[in-house]
Amino acid sequence: MNPTSNLNDIFADCTDFEICDALAMTFEKVYGYDELVQRQKHIPHERWVIHTIWGCNGLFKVDGYSYFWGSSIDHFGFADALEEIGDPILAKVIRESVALVPRNILGNWDAVEAHTKSEAAREEAAELMDDKFITEDPDILGQLGRYSRARRHSFADVLDQIIIEVGRHRRNIEAV
């Protein structure tokens, strides 16, 4: 089987979750988290988009929106990436939320906490962001899956690592 057939087969066999997770983990292994967050020019744009959305969306699902401003992520990049996959409304929500905190303290927990008048105020702002996301009812996973599948041929150089990551995910699911 040629690499294109393998690539098509793996993308056809995977759920959106499996393929997005495998791609994000692969890109992090190839380039490193810090390089991806810093949007280094040598990283292909679509790889940065996938990693950024997967990581930021995962942060929200695991830690919640109140962690958004103090986390070491590409805050503006998340909005840019959402717009790229076709969600300008959510991109606007993120940009408005990012604007609540001065740019120079984003990602610095202590500075964000000092800037916000109280933990309750920060949580209230996070709940407002959450309400906007719920109202919009985004299918970020589906959008990212479609975006990734449409660009699958550009990932042929990392096919072996994608297969490893999909296998790792499936073994973890079976173990549960």
Question: What descriptive keywords fit this protein?
Answer:
single chain; 176 residues; mainly alpha; 10 helices; 0% strand; elongated
The SSE order reads HHHHHHHHHH
Count the strands? 0
Summed over residues and divided by their number, the pLDDT gives a mean of 87
Rg over C-alpha atoms, rounded to the nearest angstrom: 17 Å
Strand content: under 5%
Low-confidence spans? none
How many DSSP H or I helices? 10
Please provide a written account of the structure.
The protein has 176 residues and is mostly helical. It has one domain. It is built from 10 helices and no strands. α2 (16-31) packs across α10 (159-175), α4 (45-62) crosses α5 and α5 (75-84) packs antiparallel against α6. It is elongated. The mean pLDDT is 87.
Topology summary:
Layout: H1 3-13, H2 16-31, H3 33-37, H4 45-62, H5 75-84, H6 88-98, H7 109-115, H8 119-136, H9 140-150, H10 159-175
Helix pairs in contact: 2-4, 2-9, 2-10, 4-5, 4-9, 5-6, 6-8
Brief overview:
The chain is an all-alpha fold. It is 70% helix and 0% strand. It starts with a helix and ends with a helix.
